[in-house]
Amino acid sequence: SSLHLPAPQDVRVYSYNFRSSLRWSPVKVDGGPVLYTVHFKTGAFNQWDEMNCTHISRTECRFPQLLNEPRWTVTLRVRAELGPAVSDWVESEPFVAERNTTLGPPRVSSVPEAQSSDSLLISITPPIASRRGDSLLYHVSYWENSTSAMKKEMSTSNTLFKITDLKESTLYCFTVQVEFMTLSDFKILGLPSAPQCYSTTIS
């Protein structure tokens, strides 16, 4: 019918550090700007509710604070609208933030006044705040800044820790990845930080 619009395509949830939004490709038709409306439902209540995205022109709808619950199963749907014409609803895949979010890299720095000839003191700021019952583990890869260097690995749950047994007056590089573990033992491995290099001192 003439009152039927093409439906939005590529409808999916994007989530980074537990901040989530629904995105889709724009619907292009003659006759003016197309608007969009988004609804949501959770696993607990099988009914569609309005989100904060009704008759919007952009092709992204950010989750309201209410929906940023990491353990909820959320399904969203979007349709296109132009005057009285509407498209079919298109649903997203069910989304659970603590399984489907992408964790960014932690911020990593050294504590220079604490450096010694055989160790480096490293400080980490995690990409997310840990919540009750969840835990964060930091996987550290470090290596001597030379062509033949072997990588060494360590893991810690501390945001301030020492890398020990190093050579003196030597440049070491390292990256850190966060592993997020939920109460239900589900794990997400985050993106690694960019390599950073710091030197031990001379004894």
Secondary structure layout:
Blueprint: E1 9-16, E2 19-25, E3 35-42, E4 49-50, E5 60-62, E6 73-82, E7 85-86, E8 90-91, E9 95-96, H1 97-100, E10 107-110, E11 120-125, E12 135-144, E13 152-156, E14 160-163, E15 171-181, E16 187-189, E17 196-199
Antiparallel strand pairs: 1-2, 2-5, 3-4, 3-6, 6-7, 6-8, 6-9, 10-11, 11-14, 12-13, 12-15, 15-16, 15-17
Describe this structure in words.
The chain is mainly β and 203 residues long. The protein folds into 2 domains: 9-99, Immunoglobulins (Immunoglobulin-like), CATH 2.60.40; 107-199, Immunoglobulins (Immunoglobulin-like), CATH 2.60.40. Helix content is 2%, strand content 45%. It has one helix at 97-100; strands spanning 9-16, 19-25, 35-42, 49-50, 60-62, 73-82, 85-86, 90-91, 95-96, 107-110, 120-125, 135-144, 152-156, 160-163, 171-181, 187-189, 196-199. Strands 3, 4, 6, 7, 8 and 9 form a 6-stranded antiparallel beta sheet that branches. It is elongated. The chain starts with 8 loop residues before the first strand and ends with a strand.
Q: Key terms for this structure?
A:
elongated; single chain; 203 residues; 2 domains; Immunoglobulin-like; mainly beta; six-stranded antiparallel beta sheet; 17 strands; 2% helix; five-stranded antiparallel beta sheet; 1 helix
